[in-house]
């Protein structure tokens, strides 16, 4: 038994780790050549404001009296710039959001093991490609971009981590700290010639991370006065900083401004999932190289936000969050981040058709470079006769695409060139996904075979140890040896197959795990034969009925992943179970208690997943009630016949109650 338990723990650990290897491996590749638009950029510098935790509707909607919540930003999108919604991805957390914004790719999930704060894999970013970047804000966000940068040109100014108090009465002070430090920075540069010269260079980025809105949202909820007042303070701060920077540079018209958010927030003050309130964030862009507001008579979106926000006549330009990185790179003329998967949103640019076509071509080549490296890596670790390339982007097709696009640009057919670039980007992204998930089916099948084998073995052990459905059969040593050598040979073939393809060591574990598991199953063939004989001897109606009940139970469990109310159906079925058995007659009191508790438990899946306010008394009351019922049941068992007092089940029950009690205390 101890060996069986140890083997079970080991097998399940492998199954757990395999999830990350199969579904959440890093999408990043390295070794690409930087790609930069060959034409002069429209802006010399870029100012990026990221209002952490700011929802799109919270910024764009009007107050009850019809006045804008952020007057300055409202005037910008109506008179000076372009606007839209930036669509984020799950997980809607601060680090993944900032990586998508500034590096152009969606976060490597392995970062969750480090609290989304450290760099599990080095990556390129707009900050890294800039001549200089100065940033102000949270110590949880800024250091990761400085750490990943090459050279000493990304500077960070952070407040103390202790300042991020989610229980504070007013967290807007975090944003005020940022605005004040930026003002002091520019004032001090006038007496610091080195700093003054650096600020007047091209390809400069200024990044203001504003955490106050997110902190107030967690503490007071997005519909609170504190959250909405914080938006007004950010609006005023952005206005002051924009005016300060324009004056500092003599209103040279070479500064581009972007305001957006890393993620939104639910009505109850949380984020991380995929609700629209979490994934829809604002995007306002203005300044050098940016289109002015575009008047339209009608535009269609599936949501009704335009009417609610009174913005029906201003063209809304939605983007994916990763698209903002190539937009920033294009505006200031730096190479696109090497790992970016964003597509340049051309409608935000106010530049020549040639510049747009060249920028789009650069974007396409940059993503194609990733595709080529990914394909090369996969080809090196796969036997030639087994390798299946991504056919829509074969080597010849790549050359044809690049030649046609370059020819269109030379012939000044810019619209055709842009259209072909978008097609190439779409295919390259599809190919990246194809090679990233190339081994998923192979590994998934290996794990599935191992899981089915382990489940079968557990069933056989239970049947053998706790039923009388089988009979003891003497071991045939010769037959056992044949089985052993057969599985050993299969294991060696699998290991050799992986070795010649230079696969990672984890692949050996996933692919070889089914071998010993199924060997253990096959050794119990006599038990399988006895079990099959007993099942076939049952009445056909009983067998079919039992099978249907099992299938229904499994389906309800699967359905509950998508619709929680399915659990209610299952619990109500459990509640009625004593009524169709002899339990209702033999133990009526216990059957009634069972039914009552099942009905009470069936209510919970129908309740909201997350409430607006924590209900600590309800949690404590539920825990105490569970303990009370547990102690009552334990006392009943102890007072029953002597045969129960030394029963192993009684000991296990006691240990379970003790563990639950320790959890309640914690």
UniProtKB/TrEMBL annotation:
Membrane topology per record = Multi-pass membrane protein
The species this protein was found in: Rhadina sibilatrix
Q: What is its main location?
A: endoplasmic reticulum
Q: What is its EC number?
A: 2.-.-.-
Which one of the record's GO molecular function terms can you name?
A: mannose-ethanolamine phosphotransferase activity
Domain GPI ethanolamine phosphate transferase 1 C-terminal: start-end pairs: 430-662
Recorded GO CC terms? endoplasmic reticulum membrane
Question: Could you mention a single GO BP entry for this protein?
Answer: GPI anchor biosynthetic process
Q: Which residues cross the membrane?
A: 6-24, 441-462, 482-499, 505-522, 543-563, 569-585, 592-610, 616-637
Q: What is this protein called?
A: GPI ethanolamine phosphate transferase 1
Where is the protein localized?
Answer: Endoplasmic reticulum membrane
